[in-house]
């Protein structure tokens, strides 16, 4: 069992919500919802309590997560520690989550990207995949298992598919600042050839920055195929709430440069809905018919 009661866990969580949550109106809503559900709750914190607290908070942020660690020994944070630096050897072992590049018999190139490693380490693997896709009759970017990662990697993929001068992708809005993300501005010779049809595959497993990549591509004309994604448009930071409870808490939200909004709570809704297992074949058929 944990060291806290459910009510005490929520009180600690709401202290961080007050410090970090990027949009105060939504912060007030999640605070009211959590207090209504857990004020005075004496239950000792365990995995079930963490899941219940997370489920209530997820009504306002799909990316807020709580993990119960019964054998945890960490000291509760007083300041956000940030994400640990990426391990170059680990990135190399997994080829930056570029899990496959396949040229189908019909000439369509399929790039499977299962997460988004730090762009400075991931760029060589992405560029190699881009070169293998050159001259394809169509391009499919498979994000069905993509759990998210670095927005810089998102910008790199959007740039490859769009080419041309730098273009705005999104604003990431923190409580005290806004960070803008732009495409780097790829030469036409290094981008997908103009007129090449492109699709992105999505599923209920596509999450966080994986959803961002799919959403930004869709809003710029890429066909989205598959299932509705999970709907997590916040940027989160890790915080230890207690010896036994580790959290990912929202510190910013994304605003797409085309739509002025995002996919929070709704997910990326595919243009062509089908079971995720069938999405590649459906997408390839659609691309070849264009």
Name the descriptors.
single chain, 290 residues, alpha/beta, six-stranded mixed β-sheet, 8 helices
Helices and strands in order:
Layout: H1 6-20, H2 24-38, H3 47-57, E1 65-68, H4 88-93, E2 98-103, E3 108-113, H5 119-132, E4 138-142, H6 151-162, E5 168-174, E6 178-182, E7 198-202, H7 209-219, E8 223-226, E9 234-242, E10 245-256, E11 272-273, H8 279-289
Parallel strand pairs: 3-4, 4-7, 7-8, 8-11
Antiparallel strand pairs: 1-10, 2-3, 5-6, 5-10, 9-10
Helix pairs in contact: 1-2, 5-6, 6-7
Could you please describe the fold and organization of this structure?
The chain has 290 residues and is α/β, with parallel strands linked by helices. It has two domains: 1-83 and 236-249; 94-231 and 266-289, 2-enoyl-CoA Hydratase, Chain A, domain 1, CATH 3.90.226. Helices cover 33% and strands 22% of the residues. The chain has eight helices and eleven strands. It has a six-stranded mixed beta sheet, with helices on both faces. Strands 1, 5, 6, 9 and 10 form a five-stranded antiparallel beta sheet that branches. Helix 5 runs parallel beside helix 6 (151-162) and helix 6 runs parallel beside helix 7. The longest helix is centred in the first third of the chain and has 15 residues, at 6-20. It is elongated, with a radius of gyration of 20 Å. The model has no long low-confidence stretch (mean pLDDT 95).
Helix/strand order = HHHEHEEHEHEEEHEEEEH
If helices are DSSP runs of H or I spanning 4 or more residues, what is the number of helices? Answer: 8
Task: Name the beta content range.
Answer: 15-25%
What helical percentage do the residues reach?
25-40%
Q: Could you name the CATH topology of the largest domain?
A: 2-enoyl-CoA Hydratase, Chain A, domain 1
* Major sheet size, sense and barrel closure: 6 strands, mixed
In total, the number of domains comes to 2
Average of per-residue pLDDT values: 95
Fourth CATH level, the homologous superfamily of the largest domain: 2-enoyl-CoA Hydratase, Chain A, domain 1
- What's the CATH architecture name of the largest domain? Alpha-Beta Complex
> Spans with pLDDT under 50 lasting ≥5 residues?
none
* Tally of strands: 11
CATH C-level class of the largest domain = Alpha Beta
Shape: elongated
Structural class: alpha/beta
Distance between the ends: 58 Å
Radius of gyration (CA) equals 20 Å
């Amino acid at each position: 069992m944990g060291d806290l009661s459910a009510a005490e866990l929520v009180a600690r969580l709401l202290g961080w919500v007050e410090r970090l949550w990027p949009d105060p109106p939504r912060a007030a809503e999640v605070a009211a919802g959590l207090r209504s559900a857990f004020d005075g709750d004496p239950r000792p914190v365990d995995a079930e309590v963490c899941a219940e607290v997370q489920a209530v908070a997820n009504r306002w942020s799909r990316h807020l997560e709580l993990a119960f660690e019964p054998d945890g020994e960490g000291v509760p944070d007083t300041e956000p520690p940030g994400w640990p630096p990426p391990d170059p050897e680990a990135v190399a072992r997994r080829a930056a989550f570029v899990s496959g590049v396949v040229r189908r018999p019909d000439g369509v190139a399929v790039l499977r990207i299962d997460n988004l490693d730090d762009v400075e380490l991931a760029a060589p693997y992405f560029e190699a995949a881009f070169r293998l896709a050159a001259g394809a009759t169509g391009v499919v970017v498979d994000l069905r298992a993509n759990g998210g990662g670095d927005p810089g990697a998102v910008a790199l993929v959007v740039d490859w598919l769009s080419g041309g001068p730098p273009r705005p992708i999104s604003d990431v809005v923190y409580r005290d600042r806004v960070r803008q993300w732009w495409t780097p501005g790829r030469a036409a010779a290094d981008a997908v050839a103009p007129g090449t049809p492109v699709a992105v595959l999505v599923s209920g497993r596509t999450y966080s920055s994986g959803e961002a990549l799919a959403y930004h591509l869709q809003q710029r004309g890429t066909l989205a195929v598959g299932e509705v994604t999970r709907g997590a448009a916040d940027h989160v930071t890790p915080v230890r709430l207690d010896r036994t409870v580790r959290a990912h808490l929202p510190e910013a939200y994304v605003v797409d440069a085309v739509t002025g909004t995002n996919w929070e709570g709704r997910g990326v809704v595919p243009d062509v809905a089908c079971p995720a297992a069938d999405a590649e074949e459906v997408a390839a058929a659609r691309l070849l018919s264009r």
